[in-house]
Amino acid sequence: MTDPRATLDLDDRVPLHGRVSTDPSRRDAPAEDLTGVPDQYERLLANLARADRDLQATEPGGRSSHLEEASTIVFDLLYSLDFRNGGELVPRLAALYGYFANELLAVGRSRDRAQLGRLRDMIAALRQSWYGTGAPAVH
Predict the structure, then answer these.
(1) CA torsion angle for 73, 77, 80, 82 (degrees, to 10)?
(2) Is residue 65 assigned to a domain?
(3) Which of 6, 17, 71, 133 would suit a FRET pair with 39, their CA atoms being 20 to 30 Å apart?
(4) Do residues 43 and 115 touch, judged by C-beta distance below 8 A?
(5) What angle do CA 103, 94, 139 make, to 5 degrees?
């Protein structure tokens, strides 16, 4: 399988996320810039770290509220994509977010901490690429 990170080049200066807010009550508020996207990645990684601790500490079969919160963040990121103005990167990010969501479901079922670790590494690389290129403009 091709590494999904290899398909992204975040250096393109196109609007990717039309609306991003770290406050769930303000999901429809327009974003002035993309600072909310890396914040969402940070929140996602923090929830995955807590989920990893849950998986290590709890009995098999227990649900992790942190995995559920991580899924919510992934779907918020997917919802915020600007498909109309975002160019060719938007479908790639959508596919990547879909992959993340499927992996979260799989981890919830299998409780596989190694799989969760690989997912965390991918999200950390995506977050790093976002910081490394500067934020594209949002319209």
Answers:
(1) -170
(2) yes
(3) 6
(4) no
(5) 145
Residues ≥6 apart with Cβ < 8 Å to 17: 31, 34, 36, 37, 77, 80, 81, 82, 86, 138
pLDDT at 56: 87
CATH number (domain holding residue 42) = 1.20.120.340
DSSP lists the bridge partners of residue 81 as: 17
For the cut 70, the answer to whether the pLDDT of residue 51 exceeds it is yes
Domain count, the chain: 1
* Residues 85 and 139: beta-carbon distance below 8 Å: yes
In a domain, 15, yes or no: no
Q: Is residue 8 part of a domain?
A: no
The answer to the question of residue 75 being in a domain is: yes
Residue 12, pLDDT score: 41
Report residue 101 as tokens: 């969501």
Domain that holds residue 78: 32-133
Which pTM was predicted?
Answer: 0.71
Tell me if residue 17 falls in helix, strand or coil. strand
Rounded CA separation 23/25 (Å):
5
